[in-house]
Automatic annotation (TrEMBL):
Biased composition (Basic and acidic residues): 41-51, 627-639
Name of the molecule in the record: DDHD1 Phospholipase
Regions of compositional bias (Gly residues) in chain numbering: 10-32
Cellular component GO terms held in the UniProt record: cytoplasm
Coiled coil regions, renumbered to chain: 407-453
Family: Belongs to the PA-PLA1 family.
Coiled coil listed as a keyword: yes
Species lineage: Eukaryota, Metazoa, Chordata, Craniata, Vertebrata
Length: 718
């Protein structure tokens, strides 16, 4: 493998010599060998084909290509950088003394997400657990056209036979790999019998594989009688060495930004789901990077955070009390919706929080240990959370816990007691209660000083969160039920301080029944302002999000109890955004807690109640208060409508300058033109992972600093 290789230039000129890949003893990439860039000169021909040597010799490390296969699909080639290092580790494996294989460290591949164990010919992920190993294969002989490798056992036999028969012989000078020339009239000069096939050599460069199945023999006999040659009738042409040589330059860009992808409920039911979903998001982001960000020398890496499977929670107690009737449906609910109840339980909430916190810190520490330059070069971290994962992630970042809410309620009760009239005896007992509570607080504080409390101590992450992307998130409902109400400042700090997370972004599909808006929790009048529409992936020259003006969602209307006035106000007006007429966001987010199954108080309503409460009132026009509605809910809605002042707006549908958010938080996917709204309600909550629109949206914000100058120049042009 370390011998000099003489090769053809492919242009008919004089040959030149280059050194093969030499093996060294120093470490490189954690593989137990070194690779000198000068030892592998690039030897490509103008047609894009691989180099051809003047005489038949052993394949060089750059001509061999390694492959991997996931989910029992076709073999996929490793990039040149990975394949070279795997091949050199493979050759070092057989260089041990006394006939024993040398110890070779695993080879890090696929942007550092996987490692390859050359001895077992398997690959496995670094950052998450996976039951099925990924097989890898060494490719030497390849099928014409598809360039899929032959199975390794057959390939080794063919390669050994080829070297035994033709080693040292001259190759044809004019050889074009892109065109398979017929070999009519030529007889095989050499043959090799395999288990179910045989190989014929019609020349050194013309090698064909034939099937020995009965049907193939009959077809071959018929076509030969009709005047077709044996090779052109039923043979498959083979090529020795891969179509493109492996080079060190074929290397993945350096990771400058990592994204932790956090799952929501249901992971117990399918533990590998978040890994598959993250893989979909990663693959989609790669396509977007190649199209829009290929000029950048860095890239964003996505890592799945699987926090559920390690938790014990109640063990099998819930399973033991589950009735046997419709057991399949009950098991599905136990594995999914039960996570919501666990999180609202004071007994198990801390375990869920700790599980996610520890997994986030473990992944970050592992990534930094394998990529020591990441922190040195200012690498950034973002989090993408889905469903309930958004709430748990938020609580970890802010350190929120139910004890704090309980203390607020106690304080409120004390204030109410002070305001009402009470007898002398009540007043005396209340004073004793205050003294006792004060003494209890002092004892608790002293105890906390001696022993750190897991309840009062906020969870800590080892990294600063640059962007927090919520997808299909019920976070707004949880915050509303915790008492968060709109303020007068347009700052994100009202719900998530910038010192904790630089940017909060709430992504949702318009028909996702679990997703709610966050902006009306900061400024109430944003319930009447449309969420920002996420650009389609193929939109030409889209306007940057920070330059998109807020558009008015529903026209301001005077409160009235007359049904006629309600129906009149429901008609579209010039101030209504024409795209958003069919949807309603006019209701304040603080008044929709009753519609959520994710709140602790309404958990018993179930999935059916959730769908009914969100979609049972939808219509073709913007929603208004139902005619004749009475009771506490109707009165509550009337009360909130009466006190709402009219918003300043223009006939263009855009809001005039007033109190605005520092930056927009709610971003909405566009509905498809032929999309069924009720079918989307079922599928939209899990439709985020493979969306090209979302992938472009995420990368746009994460690459924002790198593209500021480019965006500025494009805006000047506009």
């Amino acid at each position: 493998s370390g011998a000099s290789l003489r090769y053809s230039t492919g242009t008919g000129g004089e040959g030149s010599e280059g050194e093969g890949a030499g093996l060294g003893s120093s470490d490189s990439g954690g593989s137990g060998f070194s690779l000198a860039a000068t030892a592998l000169p690039e030897r490509r021909r103008p047609g894009g084909g691989r180099p051809r040597y003047e005489v038949v010799r052993e394949l060089g490390a750059e001509e061999v290509r390694w492959f991997y296969r996931e989910d029992r699909k076709t073999w996929k080639p490793f990039i040149g950088y990975d394949s070279l290092r795997i091949e050199l580790a493979f050759r070092a494996l057989g260089s041990g003394g006394a006939g024993e294989p040398a110890a070779v460290e695993p080879v890090c591949v696929r942007s550092g997400l996987y490692e390859v164990d050359v001895a077992s010919a398997e690959s496995y992920p670094v950052y998450w657990n996976q039951t099925e190993k990924i097989p890898v294969m060494r490719g030497q002989w390849f099928i014409d056209g598809t360039w899929q490798p032959l199975e390794e056992e057959e390939s080794n036999l063919i390669e050994q036979e080829h070297l035994n028969r033709f080693k040292g012989q001259q190759l044809q000078e004019s050889f074009d790999m892109e065109i398979s020339k017929p070999v009519d009239g030529k007889e095989a000069i050499h043959s090799l019998k395999l288990s179910r096939n045989h190989v014929d050599w019609h020349s050194v460069d013309e090698v064909y594989l034939y099937s020995d199945a009965t049907t193939s023999k009959i077809a071959r006999t018929v076509t030969q009688k009709l005047g077709f040659s044996k090779a052109s009738s039923s043979g498959t042409r083979l090529h020795r060495g891969y179509v493109e040589e492996a080079t060190l330059e074929d290397k993945p860009p350096q990771t400058s930004h990592i994204v932790f992808v956090v799952h929501g409920i249901g992971q117990k039911m399918d533990q590998g789901r978040i890994i598959k979903n993250t893989a979909m998001m990663r693959d989609t982001a790669r396509k977007v990077e190649e199209k829009y960000f290929s000029n950048l020398a860095t890239h964003v890496e996505f890592l799945p955070v699987e926090w559920r499977s390690k938790l014990t929670l109640d063990g099998d107690t819930v399973d033991s009390i589950t009735p046997d009737k419709v057991r399949g449906l009950r098991d599905m609910l136990n594995s999914s919706a039960m996570d919501i109840m666990y999180y609202t339980s004071p007994l198990y909430r801390d375990e869920l929080v700790k599980g996610l916190q520890q997994e986030l810190n473990r992944l970050y520490s592992l990534f930094c240990s394998r990529n020591p330059e990441f922190e040195e070069k200012g690498g950034k971290v973002s989090i993408v959370s889905h469903s309930l994962g958004c709430v748990i992630t938020y609580d970890i970042m802010t350190g929120w816990n139910p004890v704090r809410l309980y203390e607020q309620l106690l304080q409120k009760e004390e204030e109410e007691l002070e305001e009402r009239w009470m007898s002398y005896e009540e007043q005396r007992l209340l004073e004793e209660l205050y003294i006792t509570k004060q003494r209890l607080r002092e004892i608790e504080e002293r105890l906390h000083e001696l022993k750190a409390s897991t309840i009062s101590k906020p969870p800590v992450l080892k990294f600063k969160v640059e962007n927090f992307f919520c997808m299909g998130s019920p976070l707004a409902v949880f915050l509303a039920l915790r008492g968060i109400r709109p303020g007068s400042s347009g700052s994100q700090d009202h719900i998530l301080p910038r010192r904790i997370c630089n940017r909060l972004l709430n992504i949702f599909h318009p028909t996702d029944p679990v997703a709610y808006r966050l902006e009306p929790l900061i400024l109430k009048h944003y319930s009447n302002i449309s969420p920002v529409q996420i650009h389609w992936y193929n939109t030409a020259n889209p306007l940057p999000y920070e330059h998109m003006k807020p558009s008015f969602l529903n026209p301001s209307k005077e409160a009235t109890s007359a049904p006629e006035a309600e129906s009149a106000s429901a008609a579209p007006s010039p101030t209504t955004s024409p795209v958003m007429v069919r949807r309603h966001y006019g209701e304040s987010i603080t008044n929709i807690g009753k519609a959520s199954i994710l709140g602790a108080a309404s958990i018993g309503k179930g999935l059916g109640g959730m769908l009914f409460s969100r979609f049972g009132r939808s219509s073709g026009t913007p929603q208004t208060m139902e005619a004749g509605k009475d009771g506490p809910e109707g009165d509550e809605k009337k009360a909130t409508t009466v006190g709402t002042p009219p918003l300043p707006h223009s006939s263009s549908g855009f809001l005039e300058p007033t109190v605005e958010l520092e930056h927009r938080i709610d971003f909405e996917l566009r509905e498809g033109l032929v999309e069924s709204r009720y079918w989307s309600a079922v599928t939209s909550h899990t439709a985020y992972w493979s969306s090209l629109d979302i992938a472009l949206f995420l990368l746009t914000f994460m690459y924002k600093q790198d593209q500021e100058e480019t965006e500025k120049s494009s805006l000047d042009t506009i």
